[in-house]
From TrEMBL:
<dbReference type="InterPro" id="IPR029016">
    <property type="entry name" value="GAF-like_dom_sf"/>
</dbReference>
<dbReference type="Pfam" id="PF01590">
    <property type="entry name" value="GAF"/>
</dbReference>
<dbReference type="InterPro" id="IPR041657">
    <property type="entry name" value="HTH_17"/>
</dbReference>
<dbReference type="InterPro" id="IPR010093">
    <property type="entry name" value="SinI_DNA-bd"/>
</dbReference>
<dbReference type="InterPro" id="IPR009061">
    <property type="entry name" value="DNA-bd_dom_put_sf"/>
</dbReference>
<feature type="region of interest" description="Disordered">
    <location>
        <begin position="1"/>
        <end position="25"/>
    </location>
</feature>
<dbReference type="Pfam" id="PF12728">
    <property type="entry name" value="HTH_17"/>
</dbReference>
<dbReference type="InterPro" id="IPR003018">
    <property type="entry name" value="GAF"/>
</dbReference>
<protein>
    <submittedName>
        <fullName>Helix-turn-helix domain-containing protein</fullName>
    </submittedName>
</protein>
<feature type="domain" description="GAF">
    <location>
        <begin position="262"/>
        <end position="404"/>
    </location>
</feature>
Amino acid sequence: MRCNACSTRRAAADRPHAPRRRPRDARRVRIRLQAIGYTAAMNSPIITTAQAAKILGVSARTAQLWIESGVIPSWKTPGGHRRMYETDVLATLAQGNDIKSPGWEVLVLAPARHHASWTNAFATLNVAGLTCLDNPVAAAVTLGTTVPDMLVVHVETPDDVQPGFLASLREVPVLSRLQIVIATSLPAAQVEAMLGPGLHCKVIQLHGTPDGLPQELAKHSTFKPVTLAPLPPILLDAPFPVGANEPRRLAAVHRSGLLYSAQEETLDNIAQLAALSLSMPVALVSIISEDKQWFKAKVGLDLTETPRHWAFCNHTLLQTGVQEFSELDNDPRFADNPAVADAPHFRYYAGAPITDDWGFALGSLCVIDTKPRQLGDSGRQILDRLARQASREVSRAIRSAGRRK
């Protein structure tokens, strides 16, 4: 038998917690709603994030992102659960295409040899984050901790289908909105037969590699191709090498939000370690934009940025691993560089790229000296490992900033 008193107490707990009046946030909601004609807002049913997702027809994670970013006004109960007025959700629904949807989080379960291809494929779509794994156990752990919006399973042989694993995901309530895509070169009918009638997955045909997948996903999901700006005029006749993927790299730089961002202790420490362990007077964490080399962390240099054509790192962006240039004054690529020809008269440079989760080189970790020298094998290993650590820190910061938006 239902107890009316208990129901009343539960309803009261769900409402904004303040004696005899609604909290300031709720009052602002009411004022806003009255301004657009929803005068009955305060009598609107109070709903949960899951109920909001159902109304909006999106995943619970997407609804949560909209709520936490302020697209949908909400408050927290004393127990820490998000609540909102149904009227606000309906108002958001009425905005239709005017809603700016947060990017999707995607998990790919595929053989390791295909991870680079998957990364390149998704880099052309409006995806907020991508994780590639080759182990179903690791994938299950990741699904439980991050709850992505989509799981892509790369199927090469019938043994890769794993219908039991996929069926178990459907039994987890928090994954109820997870979209599962099977990408395979096997006949679609064969894969669907192995999945069985009760397991609803989208099957997309692969023709050799995932390179053609973006177009297919754009047809069957809300993914949209990323529109890239053309190469800036300043780079068309640049006095330094520019990669073929420079528009995509620049898009990654601006998407990262690193340019002119606050100092971070972890990157400062990495620059310090590079300088101390390699006995270098200068160590830099640089971010390279269209026309600038900006220093996210620096040791031994007063400048905060230089014109891009001063950057030795232009060459590092195009390669993997450590790039080393000794006797800069005798190298025709660098002899006329203002930092070489004039003070501080640099003579040596070594750097390794700092990359994001997509593999785009955002800048570099480099060390510089005013005299010619060589790192040696151990020195190159130190610089390479520190650059990899800097890449992990940068990627973590980008993901963290994306979740806060």
